[in-house]
Write a structure and sequence with these properties.
Keywords: Cytoplasm, Histidine metabolism, Hydrolase, Iron, Metal-binding, Zinc. Its cofactor is Zn(2+); Fe(3+). By secondary structure, the chain is of the alpha/beta class. The chain has 2 domains: 118 residues, Urease, subunit C, domain 1; 293 residues, Metal-dependent hydrolases (TIM Barrel, Alpha-Beta Barrel). Helices cover 36% and strands 21% of the residues. It is built from 16 helices and 16 strands. The strands form 2 sheets. Strands 1, 2, 3, 4, 5, 14, 15 and 16 form an 8-stranded mixed sheet that branches. The chain has an 8-stranded parallel sheet with strand order 6-7-8-9-10-11-12-13. The radius of gyration is 21 Å and the shape is globular. The structure holds N-(iminomethyl)-L-glutamic acid and fe (iii) ion. The site of fe (iii) ion has 5 residues, from loops.
Length: 421
């Protein structure tokens, strides 16, 4: 368990090392995977120390006592980066799943006080230990499906105490598992039940987010990003703008839930504020795509949510064609999509968003890492980066799409340690 590991002679290593490394990739750059045949990879103390043709591997490159993993006949990928999840929550909403399958609408359930608010009730009830263990079970399954870094949002507290508790649990998950966790304060996820019936309730909530929750989360070092659910039935562009102005003043970079249910102004706000990422984007016109491209905003597609809610898929092809860098994430949350497997969601990005398998791999590795500011440490197989790797059971990454859902992952390596086999 030293973090020293020799991965020997993979049929193909998808290094992602051939394109730009200091920014997310767009257009044709997204299809270049930097494939190397017959390469070995040495991880020393958790970091990639050498990668090259197996014939050039000499004994001095391998740490004494390093474990060895035979990769012959199989493909090696960077550990996947899940750049949009709501992983810390209490309870479940399987009852809603059945209601929706029977015809109920997600937005209507939300408007009636169910949906997000039902998870808020259950999350507030849980103590830290329960939140941690429920979330840990999900993170363990994510890891086994190939995810070695994950963004986690708050947003099921909607009050100061529970929002901070969720973020602390997210940090604890990192400490207990070693998985790289990036946190986002999504205090503006929904208007809480206790303020719904007050005429000034909306404005009071936005004030609390701006004056209480965001400053406290930033001061405690609990939030790496700020996010707002800017969409029909959630927060208006005007409310979102107030929160983003505050986030900017606090030095928090921005990610935004945008344009999921309509042309609701979120994508344009993301561009205006130079957000790192705008997410969902089912409804986007040429002008909105150009604004995202010109502002360097990563478009994060969440095809699992599209599959579950049945409200259509974001047009990934149009985004690639317009030169917008694209990332793909699970959105793992208790309501609109509880899928945990990013290696499966990568396939949905092909079938639903019409990305090519190569683009989908870039979208779940380098581009997702870049949207989180992690491109200097993850998302590629390269000397100096984290020793996070996924060994497939076959020699071709396209099998993740072709045979989507099959058990195609042979091993997951996190910081040079075998976490799943
Ligand atoms: O990204 N859109 C807002 N938030 C989540 C859904 C959360 C929930 O239903 O609990 C999403 O889809
Ligand atoms: Fe989300």
């Amino acid at each position: 368990m030293t973090g020293d590991l020799l991965l020997r002679a993979a049929a193909r290593v998808y290094t992602l090392a051939d394109g730009p490394k200091d920014r997310p990739r767009a257009g044709a750059e997204m299809a270049a995977l930097g494939v190397r045949e017959g390469w070995s990879v040495v991880v020393r103390g958790g970091t990639i120390a050498w990668a090259g043709p197996d014939a050039e591997l000499t004994a001095d490159k391998v740490p004494a006592g390093a474990a060895e993993l035979d990769c012959r006949g199989r493909a090696l990928l960077p550990g996947l980066v899940d750049s949009h999840t709501h992983l810390v929550w209490g309870g479940d909403r399987k009852d809603e799943l059945e209601m929706r399958l029977a015809g109920a609408d997600y937005e209507a359930i939300f408007a009636a006080g169910g949906g997000i608010l039902s998870s808020v009730r259950k999350t507030r009830e849980r103590d830290d230990a329960a939140l941690l263990s429920e979330s840990m079970a999900r993170l363990g399954r994510m890891l086994r499906a190939g995810t070695t870094a994950v963004e986690i949002k708050s947003g099921y507290g909607l009050d100061l105490d529970t929002e901070l508790r969720q973020l602390r649990v997210a940090r604890r998950l990192a400490e207990e598992t070693g998985v790289r966790v990036v946190t986002t304060c999504l205090a503006a996820h929904a208007l809480p039940a206790e303020l719904r019936d007050r005429p000034e309730g909306r404005q009071e909530f936005v004030r609390r987010v701006c004056d209480e929750v965001l400053p406290a989360a930033a001061a405690a070092g609990l939030a790496d990003f700020c996010d707002v659910f800017c969409d029909r039935g959630a927060f208006t562009p005007e409310e979102t703008r107030q929160i983003l102005v505050r986030a900017r003043a606090l030095g928090l970079p921005i990610r935004l839930h945008a344009n999921e249910f309509g042309h609701t102004g979120g994508a344009l706000l993301a561009a205006e504020f130079g957000a790192r990422s705008a997410d969902h984007l089912l409804h986007l016109d040429d002008g909105e795509r150009a604004a995202l491209r010109d502002a360097g905003v990563v478009a994060t597609l969440l095809p699992g949510t599209s599959l579950v809610l049945g409200k259509g898929f974001a047009d990934g092809r149009a985004l690639v064609k317009a030169g917008v860098p694209v990332a793909v994430a699970t959105d793992c949350n208790p309501g609109s999509c509880a899928l945990e497997s990013l290696s499966m969601v990568l396939a949905l990005a092909c079938y639903g968003n019409r990305l090519s398998p190569a683009e989908a791999l870039t979208a779940t590795t380098h581009n997702a890492a870049a949207s989180l500011g992690l491109h200097g440490e993850r998302g590629r197989v390269e000397v100096g980066l984290a020793g996070d790797l996924v060994l497939l059971a076959t020699d071709d990454v396209r099998d993740l799409v072709y045979h989507a859902g099959s058990p195609l992952i042979d091993a997951v390596v996190h910081a040079g340690r075998l976490v799943a086999r």
